[in-house]
């Protein structure tokens, strides 16, 4: 809700020179900018869509590892330290094609 800086009345959409503007109904004050609430909403929606579409695995390094499920020869990999320091890191893979996940057997 916006108020007129001249008289304090509530500002309402008003036709000024055939353009929709936000203006005061009591005096002749007209806000210079159109309310851009709709524009902001659109930006927010665009951001959300982008987040959903973004592949979380995209930033992982790829390696030439054969997928046990579909025989695709490329997989993302990352390492996980299973116990505090005394054990070697375990490598995990995710197939770039079928998204099957498996761990390295040593
Ligand atoms: Zn006013
Ligand atoms: Zn696969």
Provide structural commentary.
16% of the residues lie in helices and 27% in strands. The protein folds into two domains: 11-53, no CATH class; 56-103, N-terminal domain of TfIIb, CATH 2.20.25. The chain has one helix spanning 37-53, and strands at 11-16, 19-24, 62-63, 75-80, 90-95, 101-103. With 106 residues, it is an alpha+beta fold. Residues 67, 69-70, 72, 95, 97-98, 100 line the site of one zinc ion (ZN).
Q: Concise description?
A:
With 106 residues, the protein is α+β, with helices and mostly antiparallel strands. 16% of the residues lie in helices and 27% in strands.
Low-confidence stretches: none
Q: Roughly what fraction of the amino acids lie in strands?
A: 25-35%
On the 0 to 100 scale, the average pLDDT is: 81
Sketch the topology as an H/E string, one letter per element. EEHEEEE
State the helical fraction: 10-25%
Terminal CA distance reads 65 Å
């Amino acid at each position: 809700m916006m108020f007129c800086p001249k008289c304090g009345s509530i500002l309402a959409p008003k036709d000024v020179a055939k353009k929709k503007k936000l203006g005061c109904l009591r005096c002749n004050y007209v806000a210079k900018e159109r309310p851009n609430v709709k524009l902001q909403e659109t930006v927010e929606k665009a951001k959300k869509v982008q987040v959903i579409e973004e592949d979380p695995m995209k930033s992982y390094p790829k390696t030439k590892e054969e997928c046990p499920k579909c025989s695709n020869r490329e997989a993302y990999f990352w390492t996980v330290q299973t116990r505090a320091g005394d054990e070697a890191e375990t490598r995990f893979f995710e197939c770039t094609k079928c998204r099957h996940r498996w761990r390295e057997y040593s």
